[in-house]
Amino acid sequence: MPAAPVFDPNVDVTPGFNEREPDTCKASGLQYLLGQPSTVFDTMTLPGPLRVIAPHEVYDQEEYRSNRIDVRINAAGAITSIGCG
Asked: Residue 65 falls within a domain, yes or no?
């Protein structure tokens, strides 16, 4: 009989907030777009849904979706970060 998994209370297993979580939305392959205008996504086929987050925009963390690509932009519309969320 296999041993039961060991629970370590010091390990953060919160989905989406752990840097070691797998790249479920394939954002790592889009990092070359940093600094580009967010309109580059208008003509791209993406592996999942896209959410563009403007500066100071309020968005719901409770609505986390691991397959969604979150793109943060600055006031000029340039991409500042790309991740999952």
From this structure: yes
Helix (H/G/I), strand (E/B), else coil: 55: coil
- Residues near 51 by Cβ (< 8 Å), separated by ≥ 6? 59, 68, 69, 70, 71, 85
**CATH number, position 62:** 3.30.10.10
**Beta partners for residue 53, in sequence order:** 72
CA quadruple 47, 70, 31, 41: dihedral positive or negative?
A: positive
Backbone angles phi, psi at 32, to 5 degrees: -65, -10
Kindly state whether residue 77 falls inside one of the protein's structural domains.
yes
Query: Which tens digits make up the pLDDT trace of 2-60?
Result: 555 555 555 555 555 555 567 889 999 999 999 999 999 999 998 889 999 999 988 87
Instruction: Give dist(CA 58, CA 40) in Å, integer.
Output: 23
| pTM score of the predicted model | 0.71
DSSP code, position 49:
-
